[in-house]
Amino acid sequence: MFEKSLLCYRCGSRYPTSELMFRCPECGSSLEVEFDYPRLKRRMRACKDRPPGHMRYAELYPVKKPVTAGEGNTPLIRSKALERKLGLEFELWLKMEYQNPTGSFKDRGSSIEVAKALRFMDSGKQKKRRAVCASTGNMGASVAAYSGIAGVPCTIFTPADASAVKLEQILAHGADVYRIKGDYAAAAKMVESAYKEYGLYLLGDYLYRREGTKSVGFEIMDQLPGADYVVEPIGNGTLLSATWKGMKELRTMGFARKLPRLAGIQASGCSPVARAFMKGSAIRADKDPHTVAVAMECGDPLDGQRAYDAMKAVSYTHLRAHETSLHLVCRLLLE
Predict the structure, then answer these.
(1) Cα(89)–Cα(74) distance, rounded to whole angstroms?
(2) 132: helix, coil or strand?
(3) Cα distance between residue 7 and residue 34, in whole Å
(4) Cα(76)–Cα(237) distance, rounded to whole angstroms?
(5) CB 72 within 8 Å of CB 55
(6) Taken in order 178, 180, 185, 190, is the CA torsion positive or negative?
(7) Which residues contact 278 (CB under 8 A, 6 or more apart)?
(8) Residue 321 has pLDDT above 60, yes or no
(9) Given this model, what pLDDT does residue 332 score?
(10) Strand pairing category for 31-35 and 3-8
(11) Phi-psi region of 281 (alpha: psi -120 to 50; beta: other; left: phi over 0)
């Protein structure tokens, strides 16, 4: 594999990839996997000859063999009806992530994250062969399914307002479920305590999930290389920041020239990243988040700063004329 180090996004500290960690020991921020891109570039010339989909750029994942259920390679479909309804001056394409095995993009991250968990567990770096995850629903269903495939027992902690349908889906895949008093942030703190105190393996919006989720970026760049904007929801910020990482890696490998701008969507009842972005201020956690869009109800997003920076990263002056229409699209996604 081509992993080089683990990098802290906030303080810049680097750690060996052999170490099992989920947050930076120095500052508590999120980590990401750095690759040896010059060596990778020499090895990836044949990637474009492979079938499209999640594993097309397999060398850009930190595992040799993913846990798979046929995730990825979801279609990108143009919505002419919405273009007419909103009076848009540009094409609107929708990525059909519900066609993943458990019905969400979370399966991309689970395929890599659970495979990485197996590697650490098999190498003796894990005290107990059990995983734990905090989720509002979709993540839990995906983690439960892929853990079941891999033979890893797992426990999912959900907020009290998690959807009953999602809880049934998690249970159907054989995971244990605990509903707690509190929001997603409280559930996340609880599972991180379980990792520190009892040696349970953490699954969720951490560094190895981002590595699998970035295939959204790979596929969009393959399917629609001329895209001006990519619009995505922000919960923990992992999806948007992972999409950005995937797109940048394809450019580094010489497979892409133009990078689109990213636009993030948050609900008014839970909007720490959107609020900071509009005010140009630091991200401050929502202490009492509440929204019917429970999958986005992350008041203290682990990858919020990554998502914020990704949205600031690319600026095209010729897109200004389309921003009013883009706002209509963003509003539509929340209605």
Answers:
(1) 25
(2) strand
(3) 7
(4) 22
(5) yes
(6) negative
(7) none
(8) no
(9) 59
(10) antiparallel
(11) beta
Pairing mode, strands 131-134 and 14-15 = unpaired
How many Å from the N-terminal Cα to the C-terminal Cα in the chain?
44
Residue 104 has pLDDT above 90, yes or no: yes
Contact status, residue 184 vs residue 166, Cβ threshold 8 Å: no
Can you state the angle between helices 272-279 and 304-313, rounded to 10 degrees? 40
Instruction: Quote the tokens at residue 56.
Output: 């097309």
**What is the C-alpha to C-alpha distance for residues 239 and 264, in angstroms, rounded to an integer?**
10
pLDDT in tens, 138-164: 999 999 999 999 999 999 999 988 989
For residue 219, give both structure tokens. 């596929």
User: What letter would DSSP give residue 47?
Assistant: G
Instruction: Give the separation between CA 249 and CA 64, rounded to whole angstroms.
Output: 18
Amino acid at residue number 95: K
Give the tokens for residue 157: 């902690």
Average pLDDT for the chain: 91
3-state helix, strand, coil in the chain (%, to 5): 45, 15, 40
pLDDT of residue 149: 97
| In contact, 318 and 261? CB cutoff 8 Å | no
Encoding tokens for residue 291?
């929204």
Question: Over the stretch 42-100, which tens digit does the pLDDT of each residue have?
Answer: 888 888 899 999 999 999 999 999 999 999 999 999 999 999 988 888 899 999 999 99
Closest alpha carbon to 247 in 228, 220, 265: 220
Closest by alpha carbon to 67, among 174, 155, 149? Answer: 149
